[in-house]
Specification:
Order of helices and strands: H
Strand content: under 5%
Number of helices: 1
Mean pLDDT: 83
Shape: rod-shaped
Number of domains: 1
Low-confidence stretches: none
């Protein structure tokens, strides 16, 4: 089994939420730049 089972749920959910936020924000910026470069 993995060691993550020992951690409380808060310590697991916080980094995941932060990572998800960064990923979504990064994808948003990337798609916006792509859209601007395509549209002009």
């Amino acid at each position: 089994s993995m060691g993550m089972m020992m951690l409380p749920p808060v310590q697991i959910s916080m980094p995941f939420k932060l990572m998800l936020f960064v990923l979504v924000d990064g994808w948003g910026l990337l798609t916006q730049q792509l859209f601007q470069s395509v549209v002009g």
